[in-house]
Design goal:
about 30% strand; 4-stranded antiparallel β-sheet; 2 domains; alpha+beta
């Protein structure tokens, strides 16, 4: 597979007959930013050849997205803990646990 830079944030993938895992790893090594893949079917009506088109967009790294990801992680973790607490209280799950006798 060959990679050609078409624009500031667009890549063109050539010879994608064999898409290997090392090709994805090479893309991740070359471009440290986020890569957004759009795969869609395409057909050339003049030659009646159909296939897959892959559009790769390079999204620049932003600390804002890292911060939003951390906030989402905290929110999901808090929601899970609250859900587990309410579930244990409504079904009295903690009352059936054996207590150590001293």
């Amino acid at each position: 597979m060959r990679i050609r830079t078409v624009g500031d944030s667009q890549l063109l993938l050539e010879d994608t007959d064999e898409w290997l895992d090392r090709d994805c790893e090479r893309l991740k090594l070359v471009y440290k930013e986020r890569l957004h893949f759009d795969v869609y079917s395409c057909m050339n009506y003049e030659t009646s050849i159909s296939g897959l088109c892959v559009c790769v967009t390079v999204v620049p790294h932003s600390c804002l997205w890292d911060f939003i990801g951390i906030l989402m992680l905290i929110f999901m973790y808090s929601t899970f803990l609250a859900w587990a607490f309410v579930l244990s209280k409504t079904h009295n799950l903690l009352d059936h646990l054996p207590t150590p006798e001293a």
